[in-house]
């Protein structure tokens, strides 16, 4: 492992706050746009996603990881964000990186419809993500409409609730063995996005990286 | 104990193991009278939400907000009874 740190870009697209994008690997070979899980699941999976990107970059696949408006390093406030802002941020990040293939995990799969080819891990519906946020607020003794620390605009929440991963060709889907929905492959691992304490899983990260490499080579 | 009881209990043990990060031995030792919320340190309020969503996703049931109370997670047995009732509904 070289342990190389990612490069930080601020993609300035003139219409809004710039989109922060991390880049692992060089921009000469195949470029991958990485769409991470949404909301709290993003924090819980951050180490896994970084490990996956590092592993892919070491094998010549450059990874570009945007923080969507209102998330991570973005300067936008989440309550001002609409669903179309996220869709256009993904398009902008794809153009900026030159990526035509996406690697999407959990809620990231709700945004990968515009890429030419997509690889998905443990896709989630918007309804299930919203339910989890609402319940987190409820169990924590807060207002369920406040979505546990994510004050989403009502119109955003309404759009998110309708979203499912798009049914498109050129898509490979991996799921956990505990998930009985159809997929191209089911793997035995724990759902890290449910763990309150963020953890990584190096075995899972290298298994996912190997699957992506084989899929891209095929 | 019929087959439904067995499979529901096993599925719930696996969910607790995965969501809370319990090792196999601890998960296998969970019995109907094992206390959950307030007794299991990993099961804080943040974990409760994830646990219930994972139960919904894996066992294809829907848990309503007003069904989430202290009694639901009092013990493994109370949780398993609730899930079996939901699955039968």
State the helix count of chain A. 5
The helix tally of chain B amounts to: 4
Low-confidence stretches of chain A: none
Distance, first to last CA of chain B? 20 Å
- Globally, the shape of chain A reads globular
CATH architecture group name of chain A: 3-Layer(aba) Sandwich
| Rg of chain B, Å, rounded | 12 Å
CATH architecture of chain B: Orthogonal Bundle
Q: Assess the beta-strand content of chain B as a share of residues.
A: under 5%
Q: Structurally, how many domains make up the residues of chain A?
A: 1
Number of domains in the coordinates of chain B?
A: 1
Across the major sheet of chain A, the strand order is 1-2-4-3-5-6-7-8
Report helical residue fraction of chain B. 55-70%
Main β sheet profile of chain B: none
Q: How confident overall, as mean pLDDT of chain A?
A: 92
CATH class of chain B: Mainly Alpha
Main pleated-sheet profile of chain A? 8 strands, mixed
Strand elements of chain A, count = 8
Could you name the CATH topology of chain B? Non-ribosomal Peptide Synthetase Peptidyl Carrier Protein, Chain A
Element order, helices and strands of chain A?
Answer: EEEHEHEEHHEEH
Cα separation of the termini of chain A: 25 Å
